[in-house]
From TrEMBL:
This is Adapter protein MecA 2. Belongs to the MecA family. It holds the Pfam family MecA. Coiled coil: none annotated. It comes from Effusibacillus dendaii. InterPro entries: MecA_C_sf, Neg-reg_MecA.
Length: 199
């Protein structure tokens, strides 16, 4: 289990599939929020507090990204409390209440590239999957490729991950942030469009 502080209110935790197996958790079970998964989550939060000082206080949002061969990346963000809820928390400070957890299983994967040439190289390398749904964004001087993995077979997903990792990295920015603040360059058909104009 690896912990990385991403900001004042955000932390990323990586759990390998070996870690899950040691805890008796199957890959599909990670989304079922059973007892073992809840125990794992609070172990993660304890590790995050001990290693980087990230403390759960109030509502948090959790995003999880599965990686075909490596494991699961979990991004936990502290969510600002609604004013009346904050007052309620003060009034009921003696009560031992669990924080609200908003869980989102991502339906796609977001990769970040330092420059446009790396995006083109990645697009050329995955030319066999022209029909995949991929959107290209520009945000803070870097390029982001959001790939929807809903229609891909597991073997295809593994191959795509390996290729994209050669030219870019898994992004910690979410698609929602890109939709709000980034510039959408190509929607849905990014791989096909890039090869059409730059091949």
């Amino acid at each position: 289990m690896l912990v990385e502080r991403l900001g004042k209110n955000k932390v990323r935790i990586f759990i390998s599939y070996e870690d899950l197996e040691e805890r008796g958790i199957d890959r599909d079970e990670i989304w079922q929020n059973g007892r073992k998964v809840q125990e794992l989550f609070w172990d993660m939060m304890e590790r995050a507090y001990l290693e980087v000082g990230f403390e759960v206080m109030g509502p948090i949002a959790v995003e999880a990204f599965t990686m075909p061969t490596e494991g699961v990346a979990v991004i936990v963000t502290q969510v600002p409390a609604i004013p009346e809820e904050a007052d309620k928390s003060k009034d009921e400070a003696d009560e031992d209440e669990e924080p609200v957890i908003l869980v989102d299983q991502a339906d796609g994967v977001l990769f970040v590239f330092d420059d446009f040439e790396n995006v083109l190289s990645a697009a050329k390398a995955v030319h066999a999957w022209l029909d995949i749904s991929a959107s290209l964004y520009h945000y803070k001087d870097r390029y982001y490729l959001y790939v929807s993995d809903g229609q891909l077979e597991q073997t295809d997903t593994d191959s795509l991950w390996s290729i994209f990792h050669e030219y870019g990295n898994l992004a910690v920015t979410t698609k929602a942030v890109l939709d709000e603040y980034g510039k959408l360059i190509v929607a849905d058909r990014a791989i096909e469009t890039l090869l059409q104009y730059f091949n």
